[in-house]
Amino acid sequence: MGKRVAVVLAGCGVYDGSEIHESSAVMVHLSREGAQAEVYAPDVDQMHVVDHVKGQPTQEKRNVLVESARIARGNIKDLAKLDVKGLDALIIPGGFGVAKNLSTWATQGKNCIISKEVEDVLKAFHAAKKPIGLCCISPVLAAKIFPGCELTVGHDTECEKWPYAKTAETMKELGCKHVNKHVTETHVDVKNKLVTTSAFMCNAPIHEIYDGIGKMVKEVVRLA
Predict the structure, then answer these.
(1) How much of the chain is in helix, strand and coil states, percent to nearest 5?
(2) Domain 4-223 has CATH 3.40.50.880
(3) Could you give the percent of the chain with pLDDT greater than 70?
(4) Catalytic-role residue among 112, 135, 136, 149
């Protein structure tokens, strides 16, 4: 019997939900590892809806669970129903939805509030000593909840390749150890069973992002 891995989504689309390529890569790599993905999302309204052509917010309202169901091909459950006892690991892909719908990081940075449901789930897996995989912006959730943990969002020096490197500095201010890693690499915090990789925090070819997520997934399944 393969490992059962909870995948928590935050909507559908990079600017207001889960990053679709990252979410898809997680599913593909879990399948390759013989693991079963069980997809969840909170049943809440998105912070806002962004027109992905114009990059501008619209007046629409959308629900995080309903939008996430697009990526999950309809096979999804309300995050409130997640029971850590029947699961072996947790993975949260990136995308601005993590910083807008799962937390208030997008507007408040290190002073953000994590959604209670999301925080409870992360703490439950951590307390059960079950591995947690985080990519792109989602390591900020662990930075806020688990002070002193080790994480990577890629590099901590901003440049054309690493346009979001200031995130690493903010995570350090929360008391975390940030470890610089290339996009195809992961960092494993053995003590906290946290596996992180930078994904689209890096301006890299999509196959490199895909490969980095693959290493993250492989480590999560190995630790489960």
Answers:
(1) 40, 20, 45
(2) yes
(3) 100
(4) 136
Q: pLDDT at position 9, please?
A: 98
Residues 6+ apart with CB under 8 A from 101: 10, 11, 16, 17, 42, 44, 46, 47, 64, 115
- Beta strand 177-178 pairing with 150-151: parallel
Burial of 55 (0-12, 13-18, 19+ CB in 10 A): exposed
- Side chain identity at residue 51, one-letter code: D
Residues facing residue 76 across a β-bridge? 39
- Closest to 154 in 3D by CA, of 136, 142, 172, 141: 136
Side chain identity at residue 224, one-letter code: A
Active site residue 136: yes
CA distances (Å), 7 to each of 22, 87, 118, in order?
11, 11, 12
Q: Taken in order 205, 217, 155, 55, is the CA torsion positive or negative?
A: positive
Whole-structure pTM value: 0.98
pLDDT in tens, 102-144: 999 999 999 999 999 999 999 999 999 999 999 999 999 999 9
Residues 105 and 140 sit within 8 Å (Cβ to Cβ): yes
**What does the alpha-carbon distance between residue 223 and residue 191 come to, in Å, rounded to a whole number?**
11
Q: What are phi and psi of 13, to 5 degrees?
A: 130, 140
Where do the structural domains in the chain lie, given as residue ranges? 4-223
